[in-house]
Specification:
With 119 residues, the protein is mostly beta strands. It has no helices and eleven strands. The strands form two sheets. Strands 2, 4, 5, 6, 9, 10 and 11 form a seven-stranded mixed beta sheet that branches. A four-stranded antiparallel beta sheet has the order 1-3-8-7, with no helix packed on it. 29% of the residues are buried.
Length: 119
């Protein structure tokens, strides 16, 4: 059974930084893309950043230049370094893991970690 676990959320003041971690474990292999999504109260879940096995990254415009996604393929772990945080970054952040299971893919989600940016 595969498991995806996020950590690193918390309360931070505007302008501060946090680093989120996402670890995939269990019967999970052939991972392709790992990504971070977020959902604020009353809003739809949105993609924040994603990274492929080869290291190609993608960011939503609102976090470009402030957030950095990275991964350690050997550890099936992804990270999201968040700098210059703003109150509008407040949300529950979810890790998404896509596994290649021929002929298609399988998607796993973590339970989410709360990020609150407030003074």
């Amino acid at each position: 059974q595969a498991q995806v676990v996020e950590s690193g959320g918390g309360l931070v003041q505007p302008g501060g930084s946090l680093r989120l971690s996402c670890a995939a474990s269990g019967s999970i292999f052939s991972i392709s893309t790992m990504g971070w999504y977020r959902q604020a109260p009353g809003k739809q879940r949105e993609l924040v950043a994603s990274i492929t096995t080869g290291g190609r990254t993608n960011y939503v415009d609102s976090v470009k230049g402030r957030f950095t996604i990275s991964r350690d393929n050997a550890k099936n772990t992804a990270y999201l370094q968040m700098n210059s945080l703003k109150p509008e970054d407040t949300a529950v952040y979810y890790c998404n893991v896509i596994q290649v299971v021929a002929p298609g893919t399988r998607t796993y989600w973590g339970q989410g970690t709360q990020v609150t940016v407030s003074s």
